[in-house]
Amino acid sequence: MPEAVRVYYQEELEQLEASALGGLDLVSDALRRTMEAVEHQDVELAQLVIADDDRIDGRYLEVHQALIALLATQSPVATDLRLISSLLHVLKNVERMGDQCVNVCKLIPLAGNEPPADEEMVRLILTMGKHTRTLISQAKRAFEERDAEMARDLVRQDDAVDNLNRECFRLALDLGDDADVREWAMTMLLAARAIERIGDNAVDIGEQVAYVVTGLFREFEDASHPSS
Amino acid sequence: MAPDETRPESARESREAAAERAGIAVRPEFQSGNGGGLREKVFELKGVDVLYSGVTAVKGVSMDIHRKDVTALIGPSGCGKSTLLRCFNRMNDLIPGAEVKGEILYHGENLYGSGVDPVQARKLIGMVFQKPNPFPKSIYDNVAFGPRILGRKDGLDETVENALKGAALWDEVKDRLKDNAFGLSGGQQQRLCIARCIAVQPDVILMDEPCSALDPISTGKIEDLMIELKEEFSIVIVTHNMQQAARVSDRTAFLMVELDAEEHNRWGRLVEYDETEKIFTNPADKRTEDYVSGKVG
Questions:
Q1: What is the ipTM of this complex?
Q2: pLDDT tens sequence across B12-23
Q3: Which end of chain A is more exposed for a tag (fewer CB within 10 A), N or C?
Q4: What CATH number should be reported for the domain whose range is B3-292?
């Protein structure tokens, strides 16, 4: 096999990794704007996030197709094979995270223009969003630096997001009997749940980092067999 | 392939008789059908060096070849994989100045022991070469050649038919067995050579780049055949095609060229030997990783 072909392949693989991980930046930005829309009940901004999800989907389709082409034409093995397999997983997670932002943004008009918002619950959701953005950037850095320990630490960070989600639930129960307030609280619980899932997606990316580094795929945590 | 279709009932006995003729006293625990719950070893190499006229070609190879496995030897040109393959049936004996040091056990017995007849041993350990090499004879006579030499004249038609079926060639040649073998295509000739090899009921089949001269369709047929043949035979294959090694083999050995400090002398060295899946998904040695990934070669 001519050396130049192999060099081109390595360069292309590096570029595709950068593109796939760049999808996490798109998601992080979408989540930032989603949280801003939640905070200010900004329906227009929410619509913009929904429209911009096409960029995330486009990235997913484009890089996915290019990775399949590399599989078909270059027969990658060993670390390259694990990397490509992991990037396909990462892309799927990126696409799911983008969709969760869309899910939250679709809820904002449902809450009404002047919803009976509970400040504490909004604060909890915004904190979840902030933590989750940290998870996303940490997942990206762990992948770039092939740092399995940093990836493993995502579980600990995600526990904080899970706890905030549970707090939201408890708060919703205490918000009283008013029908409008209950409806708003239920809508916000769906939003909190969507953000919590984005955190889970970041942990899934961490598992892929561990796979690239060690060659062994293990779930950090199994929902059906929680460690705690 | 169901082993019973192609293998005469007497095959096991004749194989063990052949081992006796070769001077190889096969230990009971290594005899056919006696796995003993452990992976049965066909070959055990212990610190094997191969030298040509005193110059080392392969150094310090230790590995076990398991029964009914396809074992692939891969590595860049000049790494000694074909040299190593030829040690398995003493083909290196035919090369003047060739010398094998260390120990090669065949079913627990020293293959290079003074009482072993290399000619007889090669009947147990057959070889298929890179370029198909049929004899200038009919298809039938090619396959019948080995059994005739061994004096197995009874049931010769059945032996030929079974060997051709075993090599997945029967349906293509059954109506022209008397035609000259040279009239066959390259892929068919290679399968004829495999039929000729299995007609004498060997224990091991050595294949030295058996598909390198074949087109992808013929290559696919030979690869399918290897998967079927390992039901009955142990196979060791040298291949330059890493995807072929990944597709057909159970275990893969990677050899590479090693140079001395002055970069004057070079020899082959076994770098890594493991389950094929491990070699191609998560090799332990960076040199294996670089080779199978196409980064060096």
A1: 0.71
A2: 556 677 777 777
A3: C
A4: 3.40.50.300
